[in-house]
Sequence to fold (301 residues):
Amino acid sequence: METNLECGIVEDLLPLYKDGLTRPDTRAFVEAHLKTCENCRSRLAGLDAGPALPAALAERAPLAALRRRMLQTRLKAALLAALLVAAVLCSAFGYLSAPQYLSPEQAGIEIRQTEAGAQVVAVGALAKHSVCRVMAAEPDGAASVLVISCWTTPLERRFAAPNTEHSLGFLPAGHTADSSVYYCPGDGTEDVLLNGPGIPGGGGLITLPRLTLGYYLLAAAALAAVLGAAWALLRKKPAGPVLGALFRLPACYLAGHLLIKGTKTVSYNLGRDLSLILLTALLLWCACQLAAVLWRSRRQR
Fold:
């Protein structure tokens, strides 16, 4: 009778004993009883194991876990496809919005003297679909110099509203209809003098493209080579996954450059080109990371 009473007391104390909430003397009493009572030790082991699932649920648990893994795999595959499609769309937009510079004859630049001042107008057949801007203005008294350019894009050729002429705006203050106006053809050749005596002292003028993309391309290639070699040597080490993720960064930048600029490394629109390259590279890197996760999970099956 005393043994049954002691077992009942210990059984009530087992949850508190398991969670470490008993006083030291109570804990010593429970431990002394557990040394001699097989039944109470079994009850404590049952508490450590947690509640058992019903038989029906236990049979369905592996199938439910398999379904969850399959659903997660499908979601990751769908996200991977969406990232690749986004990268392709970004590349397509880069092509459709790529500037196609017009020759002076195509742009048909005219300088008209109006009541508001000297106005630069593009009246060429393609000018109605062109984007025009003032690239540089360096007023120097009477010998002022203005450089302009006109371009169109495949997207604008398709959707731009027709217009017979396109105003580039008025010459900046200090410029007159007799100011020197140069046209940049956007192909690295010498600028064309459209109006005025030219730059002081004679000679030609060339508006050069930016070369920054070429430097970025070389840096990405060198970094990809170094990280790729380190990854190949340490891919089975704990640092392998990190090196793989780092290697994919410059590799995806190289792929993004090829998708946006092809083999060209010069740019007259550095901000636009670099933004599209970085966006495409980020999409490709996320897709590569997700593909690596899917590949590892498949190998572990």
Observations:
- The longest helix spans residues 55-96.
- Residues 2-49 form one domain.
- The radius of gyration is 37 Å.
- The CA atoms of residues 116 and 170 lie 8 Å apart.
